[in-house]
Amino acid sequence: MSPALVTVGEMTLRALARRRASLALLIALPLAFYLARHAQPWQAVRFLGVGLAWAASTVALFAALAARETEPRLRIGGWSWRELVAGRVVAIGLLALLLTAGYVALVAVDEPIGTTGSLALALVVTAVTGVGTGSALGALAPRELEGALLLFIVAGMQTVVDPEGTAAKLLPFWSTRELMTRAVEGSASSASLGAALAHATATVVICGLVLAAATWRRGEGKPG
Questions:
Q1: DSSP state letters, 67-116
Q2: Is 213 strand, coil or helix?
Q3: Rounded to two decimals, what is the model's pTM?
Q4: Mean pLDDT across the stretch 43-65?
Q5: How far is the C-alpha of 51 from the C-alpha of 213, rounded, in Å?
Q6: Do residues 180 and 106 touch, judged by C-beta distance below 8 A?
Q7: pLDDT tens-digit readout, 80-99
Q8: C-alpha to C-alpha distance for 214 and 22, rounded to whole angstroms
Q9: C-alpha distance from residue 92 to each of 107, 152, 170 (Å)
Q10: Is the Cβ–Cβ distance between 123 and 193 less than 8 Å?
């Protein structure tokens, strides 16, 4: 990893650390979802995935919006916009994966369900797609309120549409639903591992393209 990426990542994490209360609430969000269904272990694990998707995407959204105040100055100083975006996304991704590891350990100890490997895969994919989705929405939204509403619409629609319908597959967290079903029910479930991973890959690629295009459109990717 280049020194520039490390520096940008550190800046991103320091900026988030200054919002301690918000960050603590977001980290606790998956736990709240999990505990809300703790009496029903199968549902608890599914809701944990939903909570992690919300948390990862929200942190990425806030980081993308906050970066608009600092990244233009760094661009003037000669930093590449690609390094700035990559450093920020990698830092948020590592934070999301750290949070994921904690929750995988919690479920493994608290409510053994299915296999730990399947659960870990489901939550890792959820964290990665969440960071991609939040980063893309943060690049599109003009301010935090609009960004939060966009995320609310996207994540809310994912929870209410028919998971077997076409509309659900056009939303970013469909892979989470498939992988969590497989983690809970085992390999005998109707959930397709290949389809879920393909959907997650497509989601990350599309979000990356949206992020790059939106950054360029705002002028942050243009020389000078």
A1: HHHHHHHHHHTT--HHHHHHHHHHHHHHHHHHHHHHHHHHHHHH---S-H
A2: helix
A3: 0.89
A4: 91
A5: 28
A6: no
A7: 778 888 888 999 999 999 99
A8: 26
A9: 23, 20, 24
A10: no
